[in-house]
């Protein structure tokens, strides 16, 4: 009796019946998935650009270069503003680059 009760307690896993899809169905699904992914990516980029302009997030190097390119323009000494500023702040990491 004990063995019969144990077998009753174990349920058989339900079988999922899948139907094969056609290549056209797959391509349609893939196209929709890619469109959704690109829309999400574009929305995230737009939101990031708005946040950068608003100043709520810090800019990375590329964004800083695109929004404030004059920081990299060379001054009279032949060095850009950022390099000159780092030298003025006495950054030890830049000591080896001073000529």
**How many E strands?**
0
Rg result: 30 Å
* Overall domain count: 2
H/E element sequence: HHHH
Shape: elongated
Report mean pLDDT, rounded to a whole number.
77
Describe the sheet with the most strands: none
Protein name: ZC3H15/TMA46 family C-terminal domain-containing protein
Domain ZC3H15/TMA46 family C-terminal: 19-70
Organism: Aquilegia coerulea
InterPro entries: ZC3H15/TMA46_C
What would your notes on this structure say?
The protein has 99 residues and is mainly α. The protein has two domains: 38 residues; 32 residues, no CATH class. The protein is 56% helix and 0% strand. It has four helices and no strands.
Structure at a glance:
The chain is mainly α.
Brief descriptors of the model:
99 residues, mainly alpha, 2 domains, 4 helices, 56% helix, ZC3H15/TMA46 family C-terminal domain-containing protein, ZC3H15/TMA46_C
SSE inventory with pairings:
Blueprint: H1 2-9, H2 23-54, H3 61-67, H4 81-88
